[in-house]
Amino acid sequence: MFRSSSTFSLIFIFFSLAPLSSVHGELVSMTVARSKDHIFTSREVHMQHLLEISLQGEKQFETFSEDSKKFFGQVEKTLVEHLVSTEAAHFSSMRLLPEEKEKARNRLSPAVFQSAAWKKLAPTKEEWEEVFFRKVQAN
User: What pLDDT, in 10s, does the model give residues 52-74?
Assistant: First the structure.
């Protein structure tokens, strides 16, 4: 049926990877910075920005173009928050308690999760909570 095992292998690989192609969110990510222990992506910066404006009570949830000055400002802000939260995590008295996390989570506007910008990023709960609690700990 197959002329060679390599043809069969290619067909097998294609069909085994086909289920992975049904992605719900649009892939919008590129590496924008790197620290010793973390690679920062444009997607993460966009999440950080949307969560930040949600905490500020904004009603319009939009992201910036990756080549804009505002985006680079958000990259810088994301790096600083990561640095501050990493330092704070080293001090046991600076760690967020579960009730503090819940209180902070309740300050988020539910509208951010329904926005087109958020849906385009399609983050998992674990992803956005990591970014969000890093932001809360840094502030």
Answer: 999 988 888 998 888 899 999 99
Residues 135/51, Cβ–Cβ less than 8 Å: yes
C-alpha–C-alpha distance, residues 127 and 46, integer Å: 12
Instruction: Name the phi and psi angles at 39, rounded to 5.
Output: -110, 125
CA 21 to chain CA mean position, Å:
20
pLDDT digits (tens, 9 = 90+) for 79-91: 999 988 888 777 7
26 burial class (0-12, 13-18, 19+ CB within 10 angstroms)? Answer: exposed
Dihedral angle sign, alpha carbons of residues 135, 136, 137, 138: positive
- Domains of the chain, by residue range, sit at 26-138
Tokens for 72, please give them: 């680079």
Q: Name 33's bridge partners.
A: 40
User: pTM of the full predicted structure?
Assistant: 0.74
**Which one-letter amino acid corresponds to residue 1?**
M
- Please state, in angstroms and rounded to a whole number, the distance separating the CA atoms of residues 123 and 99: 23
Nearest to 61 by CA among 75, 78, 48, 42: 48
